[in-house]
Amino acid sequence: MEKVQQVKNDGLMAIEKCENLEQLNQVRIDYLSKKGHVQGLMALMKDLSKEEKPAFGQEVNDCKQALTKALDAKMEVLQKDALKAKLEKEKIDITVAGYKPNIGTVHPLMMIQQELEDLFVGMGYSVAEGPEMELDLYNFERANLPKDHPARDMQDTFYITPNTLLRTHTTAIQMRVLEQAKGQLPIKLICPGKVYRRDDDDATHSHQFMQMEGLVVGENITLTDLKGTLRFFAKKMFGEDREIRFRPSYFPFTEPSVEVDVSCHMCGGKGCNVCKQTGWIEILGAGMVHPNVLEMSGFDSSKCSGFAFGIGLERVAMLKYGIDDIRNFYTNDVRFLKNFDRFD
Ligand code: DAH
After folding, report:
1. 196 C-beta closer than 6 A to ligand 1
2. Which residues pair with 188 in a beta bridge?
């Protein structure tokens, strides 16, 4: 009988000490399995007298029941604890900041191109494109730059054959558009695209860059129309307070030709580093389409006139976003490019 008490007490104590379900299961095996301690007590029966057996059997049964009850109760407690711990561990803190997926951003030059397209399409312009590998005919001759014209040196050219080259300006598209129009008026177009020059790359020069050509041809188109258009462009791109001024210049394909300055958007015209203390920033070349250009493309220059302008997209982007090295646009450093996602 003492032995039974001993097994019971030891068992209850072992159950009490269990800290997890694995340990508890081991205790159940140790005490209640076929080879366990309780079954071991049964083996003692054979040494008892007939009279003693029932009482002993009863005692062993009580012990078994007590242990079973204690095991079940403990199991319930431990299961609850385990569930609680699991829930605690898997708890999701919805206030923690999430990871931002690594997605690409629109290239700053594309942003400028799209902004300019929106602006001019809003004024009724269409968008035209042309080949980057161009004929000398459209890049130079039709632009009033015959072979051996000294002004060809203004643009150092990548020639592919004597008659094909990488276009040096989007003015080449202008010449294609004029030819395709077959004398039909009016024409109102912008032509964005890449252009190429044999320049040594530095902070302000790149052998490949982007331009956007503008062309309007119709009856009675005047320099005033050009000025109004560019004034609108300057205000939209650089702020409502901007003003523009024309300076006389020379391009073979326009007469008169002008260089266009915008009042400095950094200092408002007072003078600063960006405008080199002048209050003005040179932004593009423009002019009235040269009568020779109109005639060569099949227009009667006594019946129509037009204006044209060529905008450098890098220059606009550099001024607008305060970028000091043109090479940034082409080295594809994502740390640079990522800065522009906030402008989307
Ligand atoms: N093609 C000129 C250049 O690349 C820019 C330009 C000047 C375009 C005057 C024009 C213009 O259409 O009228 O330097």
Report:
1. no
2. 216
120 CB-near residues (< 8 Å, 6+ apart): 127, 190, 214, 233
Cα dihedral sign for 46, 48, 52, 56?
negative
* Residue 284 exposed, middle or buried by CB count within 10 Å (0-12, 13-18, 19+): buried
> 32 near 64, Cβ under 8 Å?
yes
Q: Which amino acid is at 108?
A: P
160-218: per-residue pLDDT in tens?
999 999 999 999 999 999 999 999 999 999 999 999 999 899 998 999 999 999 999 99
Closest CA relative to residue 226, chosen from 186, 183, 285, 182: 285
d(CA 279, CA 259): 15
Structure tokens at 51: 């009279």
Question: 290: which DSSP letter?
Answer: P
* Per-residue pLDDT tens over the stretch 96-146: 988 878 788 899 999 999 999 999 999 999 999 999 999 999 999 999 999
Identify which of 168, 169, 221, 227 to mutate to test ligand 1's pocket (most ligand atoms within 8 A of the CB).
169
Instruction: Find the 250 Cα to ligand 1 centroid distance in Å.
Output: 10
Q: What is the pTM of this model?
A: 0.72
In DSSP notation, 80-122 reads HHHHHHHHHHT---TTSPPPPP------HHHHHHHHHHHHHHT
Nearest CA to ligand 1 atom 3: 169
Check residue 166 and report its DSSP letter: E
